[in-house]
Amino acid sequence: MATSSSPVRVKTEDGVPARKRPRHEAGDAEYLVDHPTLYYDDGNVIIRCGNTLFCVHRSIVSKASPALGDLLAPERNPEKLRGCMLAVWDDDKDDVEALLGWIYSGMRIDFPQISIENFPVIAGLLRMSAEYNLHSLNKDLIERLRQEWPTTLDAHLVKWKLFLANLAANRASAANNNNNNNNNNNNNAVPLEPDYPYPPQNQNPIPAIPEDLIVHPAAVISLLRESQCTDTSLFAALFYDLSRRVWQLGPPFTGHHLAPLDIADVERLMYGTAALRATHAARTTRRPAGWNTRCQNQVMVGGQWKQCWRVEYWEVVMGLLLQTADLMAQPVEDFEKVKDLLAKPDLLALCAGCRATLVLHINDAQKATWETMAVTFGL
Predict the structure, then answer these.
(1) Is the dihedral of CA 85, 90, 91, 92 positive or negative?
(2) Which of 78, 111, 133, 188 matches a 20 to 30 Å C-alpha distance to 171?
(3) Can you tell which superkingdom this protein's organism belongs to (predicted)?
(4) pLDDT of residue 106 exceeding 50
């Protein structure tokens, strides 16, 4: 493999590595800079991107895809530079760096977490995979994005609950640190209730992941459009995530995070978000069949028999689902909160039959919300 080769380490008379500064040779039209890690002394082709030079092995790069092989064919690149075939590419230098780095790493992708630090590499690889028909790379990258933005309801809820658990732990740790620093142990303090992406009411939230430090879904949507991705389910998951970050119910939808979106996708977000919340409100006011009248069953609560309170219970459910704290921005997650509430049998008197009916009703509404997400956002 090419990993056995090492980049040139030429030093000038003053002892400064030539790699550290632009170099100029007879015949060069302008100052050129060797790439610090992807310029191999035994390479036989130089790829020029702007003023950056990559010296690589034609046979290794060509194996990645037929398109790259054609691009590096000698008959297409008659010019020479430093005794090597010269290929001039119009691609962005960082994208070419990402592509060649992937090729020389054994064509593996390894992104345990997607962050603002490694997202430019992922973006470069995805663009290059689409341009040069690197189908396996494209498939792997799309699958990695699907892991970050799950396209199935069950996977989405698992990721959301894991996020909440981590967020609660981070907030508890930060709160403890603040208390220790202030030497103020208040046992009556109200704990922060984690929620996302909105801060708790009447609290000063301790953010676990500041908004500016995450890979924003708008940037991913723009990248997928540029890469000609047609994965509707992934777009649906991204638009839903993006809608959860929109505080206002109507235009203008502003903010630097939305800048990557084109006009059509901004309109999708605007109308889709309004439609999603309106549909959620309609589903929330629709009671389970027969729940307009009282249930005659008795249920044991606190050591006493009480009549099933399904009518009153539904009022509690509606209060949770129509809460204004998060502008009904995350209906899928709010439905899940109701199911968590139903797991507490002593909260209100509800018989086993009505409890099972309500769980099915909530599951159906949650599933319908998720499965129509692509239609909601006009994808």
Answers:
(1) positive
(2) 111
(3) Eukaryota
(4) yes
